[in-house]
Amino acid sequence: MAETSAEPAHVHAPPEGFIRKHVFSLDHKVIGKQYYALALLAVFTGMILSWLMRIHLVWPNAKIPGLELLSKVGAPGGVMTPEYYLSLLTMHGTLMVFFVLTNAPFAAFGNYFLPIQIGAEDMAFPRFNMMSFWTTFAAWVVLMLAFVIPDGPPIAGWTEYTPLSAIGKDAGPGMEWGASCWGISIALFCVASLLSSLNFIATTLDLRARGMTLMRMPLCTWAWFITSCIALLAFAVLLPACILLMLDRHAGTSFFIPAGIVASDRLQPHSGGSPLLWQHLFWFFGHPEVYIAILPSMGIVSHILINSMRKPLLSAKVVIYSMMSIGFLSYMVWGHHMFLSGMNPMSALAFSFPTLTITIPATILTLIWLGSLYGANLQINSASLFAIGFISMFVSGGVSGFFLAQPSIDIYLHATYFVVGHFHMVMGVASLFGVFAGTYFWFPKMTGRYMSEGLGKLHFWITFIGAYCIFMPFHYLGLIGNVRRYQSFVDDFMAPYIPLHKFITIAALITGGAQFIFLFNLIYSRFWGKPAPQNPWNATSLEWSIPSPPPWNNFGGRHPVVYHDPYQYGVKGGAGDFVMQDSPEVIASGD
Amino acid sequence: MASTTGVTAQAEKLRQAAMRAGVAPTGADRASRSGIWVAMFAITMSFMAFTSALFVREGSLDWGHLVLPSIVYWNTLALLASSGTFELARRRLELVGGGRVQSGEPGIIWLVATLALGIAFCVGQYSAWQNLRAQGIYLATNPNSSFFYVLTFIHVLHVVGGISAFLYLLSRLALRPGVLRRSFFENTAIYWHFMGVLWLYLLLLCRTRL
Amino acid sequence: MGKILAVVIVIIGLASAYPILKNQYPLPEDISTHGHLIDDQLNDTMMEAGISFVGAQLVLAYFLWTFSGRKPGSPLKDFPGGAKVLVIFAFVIVGTEVIALGAFGQKAWASVYFTPAKADSLQIQAQAEQFAFYFRYAGPDGKFGMIHPEKIDEGNQNYFGLDPENDVAARDDIVSGELVVPMSKEIHLMLHGKDVGHSFYVRELRIQQDFVPGLDLSVHFTATKVGKYEIVCTQLCGLGHYNMKAYLNVMSQVDFDAWLKQQSQ
Predict the structure, then answer these.
(1) CA-to-CA distance for B82 and B120, rounded, in angstroms?
(2) Residue C251 CA neighbour count, 13 Å, CB half
(3) Where are the beta strands (DSSP E) in chain B?
(4) Residues forming beta bridges with residue A222, ordered by sequence position
């Protein structure tokens, strides 16, 4: 650090040796791929957990081969116990929200492409960057430890509501050491996310190439930048919350545990703590987290749509300002998760209004995407299919937010499958569609090879239709009052709806199965895919101005100079209907 | 449609020359300055979270009162004094070309003094904890003591971060004179003053609320 | 392929709306005096959200049909009016919708939370614990005995930790595993959490409220129909969560008085 010569950005020597190149690499591209690999591992684990849960829900006595190996206590003879269902539910939520939805669209793609898109050689702090990834990895290891310790994974859900999560083994199986694994893992994850947000912000602000003004940054770079600002605030609050939770669990303090509670016939030795405090701190993080998951996908989808439409969006500025207002509003709405939690009913109205207001920027975004499609020349490929799928999913998941934003309706729909359907569609499926689109789009840049289009399209069709088959019925089940987080539906009124649940389970098995097509495509194309040229999609942003895969220092020591807005499509340029950002050609203004 | 910006090759050359001469800060310099501000923002945010937890918690029945050990006031003096000595060091370390700091003995002495005061602060906080423990007041004794231990301990952790930056600074200046980037030096200063301000805030919070 | 996707999106949009239009998933019958406000609000929202949902999917499908896979070099057009029209549209239409829903929705919320329970309402205490509900009636003296957490003894059925020896008020308290209430009388239900977080949810009653240990909350409602309804826990509370339930038994006033009398003997 201290010895650097006076170059515009820092220059590090090319990495040497396997460890430096592929394991403890300082290269943002390697780190991006590492994040992607971890997210891939987590998403398949999470998906298989959801399969197990879905199977158990409709065939409670099903013997699942191999499940006994995972836990002798949780699944004696391969049949899942009620508490093990809750363990899997907790792990599914935690893996998906933290290790997939935060890692894949934000940390993985952001790390790989943000520096390239702004014309930098690397992140501002490569060492911090490496630490971020390896801390995240450690967080994942600690979380997965919960599967192997005798106590088993925690059963309190990914929200770990206190006092259930705070009183230790009296709360039930998995709550003694399993919940501690959870707490330590999430605290580590917070540290890692803080470091990487810091890195993203400093890099975006200060390492932009000549001519790369803020307004000339591609929309996905904007999305990553806004996301890192949100993440910085959100994880800075979750970390203290986790520390206090761990102190309650292991040091006998009473931040979240009130006096006079009796669990497992034992009067708990605590006094005066506030369970609602945990909920406030958690959701102050938890709601912005939704936008940490979805904003990068919005950016990626915009970036890809523009390329496939061969024309810019109606207004990039409106998109940027909408994303900013969503980010800003996300801090004023956390209480809508707590309408029925016993907080002051007045504040429910105070939280409801900004929540409903978020609809406005979200609608603007949707309308801009739709309006831009008008008059376009949309090229269909796997990436653009997933981008269109994203819009459809975002609308479907978004409108159900209308219901849940209103405290009066929430009285009925809270904690039903309606909520589950809502957030799976908008936060889960929609943002994963962004990740899929990004993967098909950027894979040629990352590896120098195309992914198989045929397999990609097959993957799209099954996933798109399958996701609707799974999550749309969740809304209907919510309307009839089907409560979530139940391992079995023992109520009589549920009997007529069990076939619908079976349908969902089968849809989940098929849709999940289709993800193995994607995995196969990734691995196959990495080695045997059709070689791709430097700029296969005739795209304009800086990542397409360098070889595929990019050299270790991205621009090969060159300092790119940027002359244009990021999306010069539909213009007459030397290369066709587009002009690259770093091309010095002059574009005639007007038409 | 956008027009081109007139970035000429000549302007680029001039900028490069300015950087070589150490007049213009490099991208990495600016990034580390942004980084330190962003980090301080995040630290502030997490102490805000602790503070709001405290405000929620102080409404409960078991909320009591904690007499702060008097040594914390001496610690405060040490920490504030260390900010002063750091400024003295800064004035005495000459700035040379290339945006670098050159070592000079008076400066080093003030830096060592800063380091010593920083360590004294940490030791002092430790003895404050010992003092409370001697009175039978532990982390879990009551909510007031819980907050006192948590807030002071997390603050000390951040102070230790500053101290390690000093050690790095000193080792650089002592072992390889003239090669320390100025931005590192200045960022350490900003962070260290921030630790002082943060501590004043925490002291005020503990004094009035605990 | 763009055209196929357009067709698929239309099918998905219409197929998703169909069960709602046919009311294939009806809400359970409402048996409370305030429930219709919530149901009306839900229906209004369903209409607005449904129109937005189907509308957006159809527009997406139409544009996809028209503008995908055109011959390369086909002339590009811009949306008439550009971004400005869309932004104004969003602000006006969605803004109005937001304000309208927010304002009307208040009424339903207020009926549950902003009106205090009437003075002559029947007070019942509900206790939630892993994994059961218990309900306590004050008995003839109209006073509840104090709760002493250290005296809780499940084995001897002292679920609330009462101390009848020293506490006169506790002696005639009636504890029941079923929430029995008279019809058409306002019930003031005081919620006490014994161990961890739970929630009180009766679908037909349109009432849901968390139990927070250390924080005694209350709800009030008036049941309008005799019958037995399920009370379920909706806050994840541990391994028996799915099976934590009790029944709400709404009786006529006469039957209720008889039941109460029988219990206090």
Answers:
(1) 10
(2) 14
(3) 95-96, 100-101, 180-181
(4) none
The pLDDT tens digits of the residues spanning A139-177 come to 999 999 999 999 899 999 999 999 999 999 999 989 999
List the chains bordering chain C where 3 or more Cβ pairs fall under 8 Å: A
Amino acid at C80: P
- Cα–Cα distance for residue pair C149/C134, rounded to 1 Å: 15
The phi-psi region of residue A342 (left if phi > 0; otherwise alpha if psi is between -120 and 50; otherwise beta) is: left
Beta strands of A225-281 (E only): which ranges? 262-263, 266-267
What Å distances lie between residue C29 and B82, B163, C213, CA to CA? 72, 67, 31
| Token digits of residue A522 | 């990734």
**H or E segment at A87?**
helix A82-94
Token pair 């998941």: residue: A397
Residue B131, pLDDT above cutoff 80? yes
Q: Which of residues 78-107 of B touch A (CB under 8 A)?
A: 98-99
The verdict on a CB contact (< 8 Å) between C109 and A367 is no
pLDDT at C30 over 80: yes
For residue B10, the model assigns a pLDDT of 61
CB pairs under 8 A between A and C: 309
The residues of chain A scoring below 50 in pLDDT are: 1-10, 590-591
* Full-model pTM: 0.94
pLDDT of res. B176 = 66
DSSP conformation class of A16: -
Provide the token pair at C134. 């218990």
C180 - beta bridge partners? Answer: C249
Q: Give the pLDDT confidence score for residue A5 in this predicted structure.
A: 34
Separation in Å, CA of A411 to nearest CA in chain C: 5
Q: Which residues of B touch A230 (CB under 8 A)?
A: none
Angle between helices B143-175 and B182-209 (to 10 degrees): 160
Strand C179-182, strand C186-193: pairing:
unpaired
Which tokens belong to A335? 């209480």
Mean pLDDT in chain B?
85
Tell me the per-residue pLDDT of B152-180, one tens digit each, with 9 for 90 and over.
999 999 999 999 999 988 887 777 665 66
Tokens (6 digits) for A511? 């849709």
Cross-chain CB nearest to B146 (options A120, A124, A253): A253
Task: Read off the pLDDT of residues A53-92 as tens digits, 9 standing for 90 and up.
Answer: 999 999 988 898 888 888 888 888 889 988 899 999 999 9
Residues of C in Cβ contact (< 8 Å) with A480: 25-28
pLDDT score for A535: 95
Contacts of B58 (CB under 8 A, 6+ apart): B143, B209
Distance CA C210, CA A161 (A): 12
All partners of chain B with 3 or more CB pairs under 8 angstroms: A
Residue in the structure block whose two tokens are 């001897």 = C156
Backbone CA torsion sign across A144, A443, A579, A304:
negative
